[in-house]
Amino acid sequence: MGKNRQGKKAVLPTLGELRLLQILWRIGEGTVDDIVRASGEDPPPNYKTVQAWLRIMEGKGQVDHKQEGRAFVFWPLIGRGDVHRLSIRQLLAKYFAGSRSELLMEFLSDERITREELRQLESLIRSRRREQT
User: Fold this and answer.
1) pLDDT per residue rounded down to tens, the chain (133 residues)
2) Can you give the CATH number for the domain in which 61 is found?
3) In this structure, are 46 and 78 located in the same domain?
4) What is the CB-side half-sphere exposure of residue 86 using CA atoms within 13 A?
5) Is the pTM of this model over 0.90?
6) Does 128 lie in the same domain as 76?
7) Do 92 and 56 meet the contact criterion of CB atoms below 8 Å apart?
């Protein structure tokens, strides 16, 4: 996962970039106008700000664009799963010294975990064990 489709090293998006990615994941692709309208925010984000963020994100390899007439149509180059993995890797490195087991132990000690979540985790662990044997 370390690189996006353009070969650049993947970078965890800022909160503002993540908001734009979430919109693009939902609508697939769109112009700056489409993205501003799809934000659902009141007041909507500033057109020029969104345009500037998209250019920055393009430089980071998070989005790409094509020209259709006079408009630029943007789409995401990284998916939700990519952002999830990057986030977890950063969390592991920053707070758990890279220890997956420490992270999981902390997660499992949380009293808010449901029976269904535990069942899903058990199933995932069993599946991963089978893959490794």
Assistant:
1) 445 555 567 789 999 999 999 999 999 999 999 999 999 999 999 999 999 999 999 999 999 999 999 999 999 999 999 999 999 999 999 999 999 999 988 888 877 888 898 899 899 999 999 998 8
2) 1.10.10.10
3) yes
4) 18
5) no
6) no
7) no
